[in-house]
Amino acid sequence: xxxxxxxxSLTPILxxxxxxxxxxxxxxETGVAESYVVEQVVSDLKATSHRYRKLLDRQSMSAGVYxxxxxxxxxxxxxxxxxxxxxxxxTGKLVVExxxxxxxxxxxxxxxxxxxxQFIEIGDALELLVVFGGKD
Length: 136
Fold this sequence. Notes:
By secondary structure, the chain is mainly β. It has one helix spanning 38-46, and strands at 2-4, 52-57, 61-68, 83-89, 92-96, 99-103, 108-111, 117-120, 126-133.
């Protein structure tokens, strides 16, 4: 098992998650361009019993927010599409087959289609932006 880490000097990327117009009001979704306020989606998701909320579902890709509370068990099964997890906040590890990756804020983690994977050792609750290649 290998532990792969990235430098702490990486600057987190800001992702947005609820369509807004120039005035900050909810925008009409045209499908050409959308923005999302992820912080609000995370807050809304935490107020439910759900762990995942889909943001986007297109032919070429889909995306959502995934939350794993501290100490949670990740019960995912392999997906038939490549995916990237961007760690918004929290700590843990992502085991992908024989590799172990550090899941810390500002890190993007790639998982190939059909690879066994699971988040483990979740310390602070993990808040993740998930992007899948292809349609759900």
